[in-house]
Amino acid sequence: MDNILDPNEEILWRGAPEKKKPASKGLSGVFIAIFPLLWGLIFAYMGIHFLGIILISVGIVLIIYYYGWRSKYSQQIEYMITNQRLLIKSGKAKEDVWFTKLDKICDVIVKNGDLFPITATYPYEPKRYSVTEAMYNSKKVYNIAERKYDEITEIDLYRNNQTRPKLEGLAEPYAIQKLLKEAIFGAGTNYVTCKYCKFRYDLNKEEKCPYCGEIQT
Fold first, then answer.
1. 23-45 and 49-64 are packed helices; what angle lies between their axes, rounded to 10 degrees?
2. Where are the domains of the chain?
3. Is the CB of residue 145 less than 8 Å from the CB of residue 57?
4. What is the CATH number of domain 2-17+75-186?
5. Which residues fall within 8 angstroms of residue 169, CB to CB, at 6 or more apart?
6. What would the pLDDT profile of 104-151 be if each residue is shown by its tens digit?
7. What is the C-alpha to C-alpha distance for residues 11 and 175, in angstroms, rounded to an integer?
8. For residue 176, what are the CA distances in angstroms to 104, 159, 166?
């Protein structure tokens, strides 16, 4: 990504998602792959060879997908924070490098390295995007800034990606979040989002929300 930086742009941090995965993630992939393989062998033993071959093929494809393509895809992802913007590379081509300027970011969601593979790095300046029905299904995302789980859909992430970056698989999420906040808001700040009116303010300077007057508990 160095070749797309401006001459006066300074790199503050660069890194990649952690490649590690918990045992439960690996075992789930094994069980999913074994299921069609097992039934394929049963059907083949019963003489239903055509269906058996199909299920065995599905099991092999799932094994290749879980331990081949997904692992290779996660290795292509790279993060970079400069004094001007946050950049994410999700592929080998220049078109796969997306960015958002720091002054446009109002919150940051980060995750630690126990998630494998990286499920998403949403483009901050997308050239094309297609919406499907599955994007409206909600899922829980842990928001370290608020120390709680957020119910959010993929389409919400896409619509908010310009202002709420989402970094996954970080080895030291708290350190990266602190660095980003200092780069965006300045060192020594503690910006929070009011749970009543959603207004963002510096808790080190204001004891209560300057917009609605409520005290955060």
1. 160
2. 2-17+75-186, 23-74
3. no
4. 2.30.29
5. 17, 18, 74, 77, 111, 112, 113, 115, 116, 118
6. 676 566 665 543 333 333 333 333 334 456 656 776 665 544 556 667
7. 16
8. 18, 23, 12
